[in-house]
Design a protein that fits this description.
Layout lengths: L1 E6 L6 H14 L1 E8 L10 H12 L5 E7 L2 H7 L4 E6 L2 H18 L2 E6 L9 H9 L10 H10 L1
Parallel strand pairs: 1-2, 1-4, 2-3, 4-5
Length: about 160
């Protein structure tokens, strides 16, 4: 079975890698889809940079591929032959948003969503806070893979 894990991944962090690893164990194949979300502010990395960072960060996880996409996640799921969409849940607020999105995707795209719970040590990590800390000179090495730390240092 193939699952698709869509997101902006700006940047990919240890919470993402946790969910990708869980999904790979459950499904065998995971397509990480780096989405361009016009509703989110311009972040730290371009889509191409995010794809390359995600490829490097997931190279040790068997069955994972990384691709860019824009538009609806349900269309990307069809394009990449995904049987399920995987989303992560860190807290109750995430759960509320993801259930509504899952119901919408079921209706408009005829695809089911599997919600995976982040491990406690990763449950607080978000790309937004990683960017905030990094842009203000803080150390994000406990939050992101080494390849992202290196890419952030080149942005400064």
């Amino acid at each position: 079975m193939r699952a698709m894990f869509p997101g902006s991944f700006d940047p990919v962090h240890l919470g993402h890698l946790d969910i990708i690893g869980q999904a790979a164990t459950l499904f065998g194949e995971v397509v990480v889809v780096v989405m361009n979300n016009p509703g989110k502010p311009v972040g730290m990395f371009s889509v191409d940079e995010r794809v390359e960072l995600a490829k490097s960060a997931t190279s040790h996880i068997k069955g994972v591929t990384v691709n860019p996409a824009s538009g609806l996640a349900v269309d990307a799921a069809k394009k990449f032959g995904a049987d399920f969409i995987v989303k992560s849940v860190r807290n109750a607020a995430d759960f509320d948003v993801e259930v509504q999105m899952a119901d919408t995707n079921r209706v408009v795209g005829a695809i089911e969503t599997v919600l995976l719970i982040a491990k406690p040590q990763n449950a607080f990590i978000s790309s937004r806070y990683v960017r905030d800390v990094a842009l203000n000179g803080g150390d994000v090495s406990a939050l992101v893979p080494k390849v992202v730390v290196e890419a952030i240092s080149k942005k400064k």
